[in-house]
Amino acid sequence: MIIFLGIAGAGKTEQSKLLAGELNYYRISVGQLLRDNANADLKYVLDKGELIDDEIVIPILEKHIAKVPPGKDYIIDGFPRTLNEAIWITNRPHKDLVVIQIVLTPEEAYERLKTRNRADDNDQAIKKRIYEYEEFIDSILHIFKEKNITIISIDGSRGIQDVHDQIIRRIKTIRRKS
Hints:
Elements: E1 2-6, H1 12-23, E2 26-29, H2 30-36, H3 40-47, H4 54-65, E3 74-77, H5 83-91, E4 98-103, H6 106-115, H7 123-146, E5 150-155, H8 160-177
Parallel strand pairs: 1-3, 1-4, 2-3, 4-5
């Protein structure tokens, strides 16, 4: 299993799509799952850029993980976003979990998100998502480190293909070592 983490606008979705295609992995976008399953109340929370409660997110993700064909590896894009979600995912059975963190400054993320054309990319929501990420990421990474899970940090400020090439090189290096 591969998990993509990064501040909003870092390129998790694009990079997880590219990697899933190249490795023939099943891909799960938690943000898309939430948008697809949003009732009016959930849509309101999403549009404000706030985190959705773990009690809602985890069951939706768990239901979708159950759809992954047996024996097929998968990528999760945009999860975990809270400490409880990090604990939950690390306690699930998995083989060779790798976390890819696409690193981008808040300023770069803000500039990228302002040009994206999505309903929940309004100024207030963008600032809120950046704040939430910065507030929780250190604790989330700490959980992964405690469990000796490989974390790959990638410079997300480069072009799409360059970022993808960095990810592929690092994944190949890890696989050679195992």
